[in-house]
Amino acid sequence: MTLADSPALTQDRPPAGGRPQRQPLAGRTALVSASETARMRTLGRELAAAGRRIANMAAGELDTALAAPVRRAAIAAIEAGHNRYTDTSGLPGLRSAIAGLVAEKTGLAWTPAGISVTAGAKQALFNAAMTLIDPGCEVLIPCPYWTTFPTQIRIAGGTPVALDTTATGYLPTPAMIRAAITPATRMIVLNTPNNPTGRVYDAGLLDQIASIAQDHDLWILFDECYGALVPAPAVHVNLLRLRPDLRDRVVLVDSFSKSCAMTGWRIGYLAAPEPVIKAASAFQSHTASNPNVIAQHAVLAALTTGRAELDAFQADIRALLAGNRALALDILAGLDRVTVRPGEGGFYLYLDLGRLIGRQFADGSPVTDADAVAEHLLSEAGVASVPGSAFGDPRGLRLSYAIDGDDLATGLRALVATLNRVA
């Protein structure tokens, strides 16, 4: 859909010569709906606040304390009176520290001019879309996808093109990518470890995709927000470390939300060719002005004086998640007609509900799609999840195992019992 085709722009037009009627909302609002992940997370919290025990597996965040060096530095920043604007793209020291971090990940030299600090990864992605996508451009996105990807592409005037990976183990194939490319294709989005499936793209697949992008002169948006949360034996591969020859067409997006357990603090970044950073910063100057100054100082300290402590924190988190994942898979093995797709990284498990669709819940209501399953699990089992419709897949269900172990076990046992009663 283009803005010109939007219902808000075409409905209730006055007859010729009639008085124009003011439209209540801008046409672009028809392109955007509230995040389903946020809705389910909120529903779970509301029920818990009302006194019901809820295993909230809808939230995409760690159920753990904030990384200690981040907490200490934030308190110190408040005491020091750091309450003024910073540079639009972030504190120079933080941009320098992130440049060093990106250099470690990519094996390439980086300067602060190639870094823009943002209000979380969402703003980094939005800035990239507004910078790189013109109306009419097509963007390839493997599906299931994080719900924000296609929405932001539409806001920028582009057309998201979903690549259905449900039959290929939730990984895109070179053949499907080549088949989807048209003269209008501008960019491909790669998200590894993937949200919602947890799949990790290996070096061989990334190399093939990189070559396709090079052959067709495509940008690659490489979202690695869960890259620090990949336990052995899986390995997260940074695209530019693998293919440094693509530096002029790759935009890296990362965040400290997951790796530092600070989702609410909203600090992410773009690492890209300098012209991209300059243009993205111009957009940011008219939206957020600059990222949260206290959070910036906190991350700066974590990356410099607190780096060893941060590395140990992340190692502990990976061990905790590995234990939760093993527990979850053991319990979910009891499901009768549901296929569990264990991801290699991040903290999500993805369920294929295809064999339940068309059947009936124990109360006689129909299993129409993943949305019906998610609603039923919340009301009957006390489990908050996110239906695959949020990710372009009406048969899938995302579960986060980054929650308290006791709540995880209780919730998953209730989920198995509830879904096994589907007749």
From TrEMBL:
Its cofactor is pyridoxal 5'-phosphate. InterPro entries: Aminotransferase_I/II_large, AspAT/PAT-like, NHTrfase_class1_PyrdxlP-BS, PyrdxlP-dep_Trfase, PyrdxlP-dep_Trfase_major, PyrdxlP-dep_Trfase_small. Its EC number is 2.6.1.-. SUPFAM superfamilies: PLP-dependent transferases. Residues 55-414 form the Aminotransferase class I/classII large domain. It catalyses: L-aspartate + 2-oxoglutarate = oxaloacetate + L-glutamate. The keyword Transferase applies. Residues 13-24 have a biased composition (Low complexity). Residues 1-30 are annotated as: Disordered. It comes from the Bacteria. Keywords: Aminotransferase, Pyridoxal phosphate, Transferase. GO terms for molecular function: transaminase activity. It holds the Pfam family Aminotran_1_2. The keyword Transferase applies. Belongs to the class-I pyridoxal-phosphate-dependent aminotransferase family. This is Aminotransferase. It comes from Tistrella bauzanensis.
